[in-house]
Amino acid sequence: MPYLPRPPHSLPRRQAIGRLGAMAAALALPFSALPARAAVDGKQLRIGYQKSSTLTALLKSQGTLEKRLAPLGIKVGWFEFTSGLPLLEALNIGSVDFSADVADTVPVFAQAAGARLTYVAQEAPSPSAQAIVVKEDSPIRTVAELKGKKVGVAKAAGSHFLLLAALEKAGLSAKDIEPAYLTPADGRAAFERGAIDAWVIWDPFLAGVQRQSKVHLLTEGKPVAEYKRYYLASSDYAQARPDVLQILFDELRHTGRWVKAHPKEAATLLAPVWGLDTETVEQANARRSYEVRTVRPDDLGEQQRIADAFFAEKLLPKKVVASDVALWKPRG
């Protein structure tokens, strides 16, 4: 059934979850140092998401999951996070049960920290949905010219791997630049005032800066980074409620197909949620695949490349075997 436009719900008050934003620092500590995991409550589904979690935002605004899960007596809670690292930390300690899409790099950091997470689904690659940008009047025109320059990037985000891979292709490493680890909002502000020389960012933030500022793209992800996004559940929840994950998977896949088939309607729904104009949202959505599919062991080659790159830069505390993860399997 198609989705009918309706005003999106306002965001709920965020649940207080201890140590949010600390997962990157927590990588130096065993996850046993974090609070004990909460027991799974089979009568609720707590979903963590980010502002850029397109398909989840649509499900939330439409009340779709509430309708599907009501016959099972399950209530849905929605909790917004600023980035993927604290979201997966909350997932690991049982503060949420399911994570909306996070960039491919984020589960690698969680895996290195010993998190007990299960891959539920992935979106097919969207390499053009992230890029390295400079101001249009910048003298920098190649990645190689970033040597010695200050580059803004969100630590552990998919764009972070794009930066590392692009630098390697240009014969450089992270040591050749001055990284500035910034959230998308802080990165945009720093970029606009000239506090950084280049910015590595993903959609819809990429589309926003392209439409509102004069920028030049040094590179998109396509030559060097696939950029997949992953949906995960706590392993405890995946074991306790595979039936709920099946419903989530089906609804996410359906919503992804609907977005691609109805780009203008989807942009109209998402624009007020993201605080962007519909044209910017439509541009961003055009570069995302939104093809939701299951995760197979042979799909994790890029994850291994990511793990190796971050370990080489001493950003991971240990080597990671990307395939050493739990994978949810759908019915049939």
Mean pLDDT: 86
Q: How far apart lie the N and C ends?
A: 22 Å
Q: Helix content range of the residues, please?
A: 25-40%
Main sheet characteristics: 7 strands, mixed
Outline, from the CA principal axes? Answer: globular
Number of separate helices: 13
SSE series: HEHHEHEHEEEHEHEHEEHHHHEHE
Structural class: alpha/beta
- State the low-pLDDT regions, or none: 1-36
What percentage of the residues does DSSP assign to strands (E)? 15-25%
Report the count of strand segments. 12
Short account of what is shown:
Helices cover 37% and strands 18% of the residues.
Characterization of this structure:
This protein is an alpha/beta fold and 332 residues long. Helix content is 37%, strand content 18%. Strand 6, helix 6 (158-169) and strand 7 (178-181) form a beta-alpha-beta unit. Helix 11 crosses helix 12 (278-286). It starts with 22 loop residues before the first helix and ends in a 5-residue tail after the last strand. The model is unreliable at 1-36 (pLDDT under 50).
Secondary structure elements and pairings:
Layout: H1 23-26, E1 44-49, H2 54-62, H3 64-69, E2 75-80, H4 84-92, E3 98-103, H5 105-112, E4 117-123, E5 130-135, E6 150-153, H6 158-169, E7 178-181, H7 184-192, E8 198-202, H8 205-212, E9 215-220, E10 229-234, H9 235-240, H10 242-261, H11 263-274, H12 278-286, E11 292-293, H13 301-312, E12 326-327
Parallel strand pairs: 1-2, 1-3, 4-12, 6-7, 6-8
Antiparallel strand pairs: 3-10, 4-10, 4-11, 5-8, 5-9
